[in-house]
Fold:
Amino acid sequence: MSAPIKPTIEYDDFAKLDVRVGRIVAVTEVETSNKLMRLRVDFGDHERTILAGIKQEREDPGEIEGRQALFVVNLAPRKMAGELSEGMLFDLGYEDGITPCLSVPETEVPNGTRAG
Structure:
C-alpha cells in the first residue's frame, strides 16, 4: 500500500530546496553511532561532510564510494553523534520501510549540477 501524498505546497516552497549531484569520494564509520556513516562528497567547487544513516542498510556501506547521488545542500548544518553534517543524502525507500537505494542521475553529470 502506498503512503498518502503529503499536503499540497506552493512551488515557492519547493524552490527553496537546493538538491545537487555530488560524488561520494569517501565513506567512513562514525564510531559513536550504530546508524551513521560519514560521507565526504565532492560538489565540484567544494567538498562537504554529510552524515547518513546507512550503516545498517547495506552489507558494505563503502560500496557507494565513487558513486554520484543527490543531496540536499541547503539544510542548516546539524550535529549528529557529536559531528557536524552539512547536508542530507536524498535516498529512496527509507520512509516506506524498504531497503533504501541511492537517488542517482541517469548519466554522469558534473558534480554540483542542480536538480529541478
Observations:
- The radius of gyration is 14 Å.
- DSSP finds one helix and nine strands in the chain.
- The mean pLDDT is 94.
- Residues 22-102 form a domain with the OB fold (Dihydrolipoamide Acetyltransferase, E2P) fold (CATH 2.40.50.140).
